[in-house]
Every structure is written in structure tokens, then in C-alpha cells.
Amino acid sequence: MRPKTLLALAMLFAVAATGSARVRIAVQNGKRVIYNDGVGEKSPTAGRKRSVGEQQWLAARITRPSEFDSLITRSANDHSLDPRLVKSVMLVESGFNPSAVSPKGARGLMQLMPSTASRHGVRNIHDPAQNIAGGTKYLSHLLGLFDGNLEKSLAAYNAGEGAVARYGGIPPYNETQNYVRRALTAYYGTPYAGGSGTSLGGGFGKPFAGKPVRIERDSQNRPVLTTARPSAPVLRRLS
Q1: pLDDT tens profile 133-164
Q2: How much is the pLDDT for 121?
Q3: Residue 76 predicted with pLDDT over 90
Q4: pTM for the complete prediction?
């Protein structure tokens, strides 16, 4: 191993030793990848609502590798979703902590309620592979239910399908509105203040409507959620 590599690793492990980070090296696509994931990662400014620092942290953290990227990609492909969307939900839900338990009883990486986990075939709710698969399946269900509308689907993931149906959109709950903002800030990589027909109560300053989300067909005729420019006839709903 090169001296520079040894020095870099020594510094990385020294930094990790002072906090709760878990450092490990894995091989992906023939290349060594160093993971420095915290347990229950949070932005340095997570306590400040609509903080510019939190926006920047969310947008930056989503681009860095996590320990669960391969499982995220596998589950996202199984359900024709963008892996970045699944990873954004996981980041906001648990900060990549498979042992996370919310005060309301949601558990694991994707913060599944036991009833939701059971409905989507999850037997061990704290097993990363099962939890990610169940959460991705549930997110896919919500996107189909709300015709691919990201704001409504994410709001339903947080507050429940009934609340979104009752209010005809994102419920007027601070927790849910902040949740949608944070998840879409991570997903789009830029501050999100509300999309078409959505009121998010002030946003982060200048409104950003985000990239339009469409559903296309891939080479195997499967529906795929995308924000890229149209390359094929657009479908209106998942089937």
C-alpha cells in the first residue's frame, strides 16, 4: 500500500475514533471505497428549521457512498424507482441507522411501522435488506396511488395515505411539510420550496419547483420514474 494511502487511512480512522462514525473499506466495481457512515447521521444544523447549512448538508450527503448503496440499488431496480429517491428517504428517515426506532414505533433504515412492514413482506424489520425492500415497495405503491406525484407520495410515507387523501395534498403538519422539503432537497440536490400546486408554508426563500417527474418505459417495457428529458412516450401512471 502506498505511503500516501496509509497516511490518509490513518487520518480517517483517527477522526472516526473521536465520534460515532463507522469506517470500513469495501470493493465496488473493482474499486476500493471508504465508508465513513455515522450511526443516525444528522446535519450539523438539523435543529434549525429551513437552515441553509442543512440544505447544503442534505444535498452533499446524498452524493456520498453509504454502506447500503448496493441494497438500495437492487430494491429500487426491483420496483422501477430511482435509487437516489430511495436513498433520500432513508437519509431523512433514519440517517442510515438500521437500529433506529422513532417515538411512534417506526423502525429501521426506512422507518417502517410494524403493520406496514408486515403488509410488504418484511419479517425482520431491522434487517437492512428486508427493511429497504419493504420501504421501497411501499414507496412504489404510494407513487402508483398518487399518479407519480412526489410531494403527495412522500407526505403519505410520513403522515399516512389517509391524511393526504383527507387534505387533498400535503397535510398542514409542520413535521410532514419539513419532511417533504428535506427529502426533496436531498433528491434534487438543491433547496426545495414546493412544486406545482403545493403549499409548503414559506419554503427556503426563492421557490424552487424542482425537476418534472415522469414515468417512462425501459428496454424491458417496465415503468421507470425519471427526471431526465423525455426519450420515450410518457405514461401517466404506474401499471
Answers
A1: 999 999 999 999 999 999 999 999 999 999 99
A2: 95
A3: yes
A4: 0.68
Q: How far apart are CA 41 and CA 44, in angstroms?
A: 9
**Beta bridge mates, 58:** none
Task: Summarize pLDDT for 94-106 with one digit per residue, the tens.
Answer: 999 999 999 999 9
Query: Phi first, then psi: what are they for 216, rounded to 5°?
Result: -120, 175
Could you tell me whether strands 214-217 and 223-226 are parallel, antiparallel, or unpaired per DSSP bridges? Answer: antiparallel
How many CB atoms within 10 Å of residue 99? 11
Residue with cell 471508504: 34
Residue type, 234: V
CA distances from 107 to 47, 118, 234 (A): 22, 12, 36
Give the catalytic positions in this structure: 93
Nearest to 55 by CA among 179, 192, 154: 192
For residues 65 and 41, the answer to whether their CB atoms sit within 8 Å is: no
**Mean pLDDT, rounded, for 55-67:** 92
Nearest to 68 by CA among 7, 135, 129: 129
Which of residues 28 and 205 earns the better pLDDT score?
Answer: 28
Alpha carbon separation from 234 to 217, 224, 226, 231 (Å, rounded): 8, 10, 10, 9
How far apart CA 168 and CA 81 sit, in angstroms, is 24
